[in-house]
Amino acid sequence: MDTSQQETLAELKRRLADIAAGTADAEAADSGTDARSARKERAAAGEAGDGTGAARPSRRRRTAAKTPDAFKEDGFGEEAPADEPWAEAAVGEETSGRKRGGKKPGRQWGRQGSDREEPDPQSPDQEPEPLSPEEAYAEAKAIVLRQLTASPKSRRQLETKLAEREIPPDAAAAVLDRFEEVQLVDDAEFARLWVRSRSQSKSLARGALRRELTEKGIAPDLADEALEQLSADDELEAARSLARKKLQASADLSDRSVRDKQTRRLVGMLARKGYSPSLGFRVAAEVISEVRDTRSDSV
């Protein structure tokens, strides 16, 4: 091979080496560009996913991603079939919303998904049928028996109770008449028991007892008959007993202003019990005098 051929061959080898070197640089440059583009695309995807640009997902996002879409419970921890009505009750709701305190789908369906309609108590179609005369009489009788079992009652009190229970007036009158015949309802006996009990337990005067009997529906003649149990002496002694209990023991009764104050207190208390003002002042003066005499004797 002559010298010109050798130079030509060497020139071809250099050109081939330059071509090979350029191709490698171009591939490296292309691969770097692709890597940068891939990183940019991943970053853009992260920004579009959570709006913060962070590539690492949060703990809650990883947990939500692991939750299967088919895990939609029916309230008992089982997957709800697609053909059951409550499977569509939570459309548009996330399963994680129930974990934050939401109601279980099964329990919610039990109230809202049922086809049964509750009766409306205010609807005119739901009004109870009127009682027959026999039913009204039986119900009135049961009510009166319950009332008398608790405590004695006057006829007026029982009439009021039956009216509150919407018992027809004719049935109520028939039942009360029958109870009066057998003396289970007796206004005269009720008045006597009332006067005896209230005078002993509350130390009420005849005036207060008369007002209470009137409120109970007792006739005036029956009230007068019952009040005859209390004599004037009984009323006076009851007033004295009350005054002795209510007089302030630590009061300095040697002071005139203190005595006047205690007198006003005692008279007001006795007036609330039904005693007349004249009787109240008389009893207050007697009790205060007794206490002063007792203290002077002890000194």
Brief account:
By secondary structure, the protein is an all-alpha fold. Among the domains are: 133-227, no CATH class; 241-298, no CATH class. The protein has helices spanning 3-50, 59-66, 96-99, 105-112, 133-150, 155-164, 169-181, 187-201, 206-215, 220-227, 232-246, 256-272, 277-298.
Give a quick set of tags describing it.
single chain, 299 residues, mainly alpha, 0% strand
Describe the structure.
The protein has 299 residues and is mainly alpha-helical. Among the domains are: 133-227, no CATH class; 241-298, no CATH class. Helices cover 66% and strands 0% of the residues. The protein contains 13 helices and no strands. The chain has helices at 3-50, 59-66, 96-99, 105-112, 133-150, 155-164, 169-181, 187-201, 206-215, 220-227, 232-246, 256-272, 277-298. Helix 5 crosses helix 7 (169-181), helix 9 (206-215) packs antiparallel against helix 10 and helix 12 (256-272) crosses helix 13. The radius of gyration is 51 Å and the shape is elongated.
Question: Any chance you could write out the topology, listing elements then pairs?
Answer:
Layout: H1 3-50, H2 59-66, H3 96-99, H4 105-112, H5 133-150, H6 155-164, H7 169-181, H8 187-201, H9 206-215, H10 220-227, H11 232-246, H12 256-272, H13 277-298
Helix pairs in contact: 5-7, 6-7, 8-10, 9-10, 11-13, 12-13
String of helices and strands: HHHHHHHHHHHHH
Q: How many helices in DSSP terms?
A: 13
Q: What average pLDDT do the residues reach? A: 74
Sketch the major β-sheet. none
| Low-confidence sequence ranges | 62-116
Structural class: mainly alpha
Secondary structure tally: strands: 0
Gyration radius from CA atoms, angstroms: 51 Å
Give the distance, in angstroms, between the N- and C-terminal Cα atoms.
163 Å
Globally, the shape reads elongated
Strand content: under 5%
Helix content: 55-70%
